[in-house]
Amino acid sequence: MYRFSGGNMSKKTTDELLKIIEQEKHLDTFFKDNSEEFEDTTLSGELARLLKIYGLTKSAVIRDSLLDKTYAYQIFDGKRVNPSRGRLLAICLAAGITLHETQRILRLGHVEQLHPRNIRDCVIIYSINHHISVQKTNEVLYDMGRELLV
Among 19, 28, 76, 142, whose CB has the most other CB atoms within 10 angstroms? Predict the structure, then answer.
């Protein structure tokens, strides 16, 4: 079931897990046999990891995100459950992380990931890929008559 690449075991693909759960007769067996496949990362944990990787501070990202400081610190500290998609995107843009990392933050935040067939999302994807600020992104969204990030 595992694929070997350079001597390292890799996780099953999502499609592989879907096939297994479709065929599995007992849920407890599925969980037991696939226990290493599940994420246990939290949104705040992933944000902390990204800050460390990029050498960023919470205060700098919060400043550049244009979010209310108290609210943003609560997101970073895991005290704010279910932050809005726009607020998470503002944090991601302010941190200058990749699109892949942004999609992971959105998934961990339990909100819809960015989709290139959505015009507003295209603007945000472009901004992420070209390291455009939250302020400039909001200006483009405003000019297009789309919902602002914050």
Answer: 76
Give the whole-angstrom CA distance, residue 101 versus residue 103.
Answer: 5
Could you tell me the pTM of the whole model?
0.81
Domain count, the chain: 2
State mean pLDDT over 53-65: 97
Residues 60 and 133 in one domain: yes
150 within some domain: no
CA distance 36 to 26: 18
Residue 84, in any domain of the structure:
yes
What would the pLDDT profile of 20-44 be if each residue is shown by its tens digit? 999 999 999 998 998 888 877 899 9
Shared domain check, 133 and 67: yes
**Residue 47 carries which side chain, given as an amino acid letter?**
L
